[in-house]
Write a structure and sequence with these properties.
Strand order of the largest sheet: 1-2-3-4
Number of helices: 9
Helix content: 25-40%
Shape: elongated
Order of helices and strands: EEEEHHHHEEHEEHHHEH
Number of strands: 9
């Protein structure tokens, strides 16, 4: 079978594209789409069925896919769209800390319907959170709908101590005892610059004792065993 000359393909139709001219010194062909737009397409893409329109067909299919479930403006859909943008869109302000760091999402989740099936509707007051592996990918096994507090506790910069053998956010420990976490942090940071040997435990103990004295409360023993020896280790782990 003789090879068809490129010039002889003018007038052939591939999907919505009709070849109208050849491009000199190139494998591209000038095509007019049914929507009226003129584009230049690589001939192998036309022959292989990889390009069937100027892009309008894909856009229409996407619109149909996204609106068929009737949730294109829902909080769940907006979370899904934001997730994809952070990973795929280099112009997204958060791309460098997500897609730029190699974070990916389950290929199935390229389809919103699959994401919705796995995660369900987004509850009020929550956002999409990677958990338990905060450095892992967006998958059904590593994602949850989390409150702002849960998100904050899952941040890489969260400080932890071990309370009763359990790794606990330092902010939760302070809250349970009625202490100001920010006040303790600021005092610790201020004193650390003057005395490198100062410890968070000493600042915490001082604040706790002052609180008890101010309240005229007598407590025989602190009822939570805090393993301060592991604090530096956990701090490095979370940094």
């Amino acid at each position: 079978m003789s090879k068809v000359r490129r010039e002889d393909r003018v007038g052939e139709v591939f999907g919505r594209l009709t070849i109208t001219y050849t491009v000199m010194n190139s494998r591209r062909m000038g095509c007019q789409c049914e929507c009226g737009k003129v584009v230049e397409v690589q001939m192998p893409n036309l022959l292989g069925g990889r390009t069937l329109s100027c892009g309008c067909l894909r856009s229409e299919q996407a619109r149909g896919q996204f609106t068929s479930h009737g949730k294109s403006g829902s909080p769940t859909y907006l979370s899904w769209r934001s997730m994809k943008s952070r990973i795929e869109n280099v112009k997204d302000k958060n791309f460098q800390v997500y897609g730029g760091r190699g974070i990916k999402f389950d290929p199935r989740w390229d389809d919103f319907s699959a994401f919705l099936l796995d995660m369900g509707e987004r509850p009020y007051g929550t956002t999409l959170d990677r958990y338990p592996n905060q450095e892992g990918d967006y998958t059904k096994e590593n994602c949850r709908w989390a409150t702002k507090k849960q998100q904050m506790n899952n941040r890489r910069c969260t400080l932890y101590v071990v309370v009763d053998g359990k790794k606990t956010p330092f902010s939760d420990l302070c809250k349970a005892l009625g202490l100001s976490r920010n006040l303790i942090y600021s005092r610790y940071a201020s004193r650390k610059t003057r005395n490198p040997d100062v410890t968070l435990q000493s600042v915490f103990d001082e604040a706790y004792l002052n609180l008890l004295q101010n309240r005229n409360v007598f407590i025989q023993a602190f009822d939570m065993a805090v393993d301060w020896a592991k604090f530096d280790e956990l701090l490095k782990e979370e940094a």
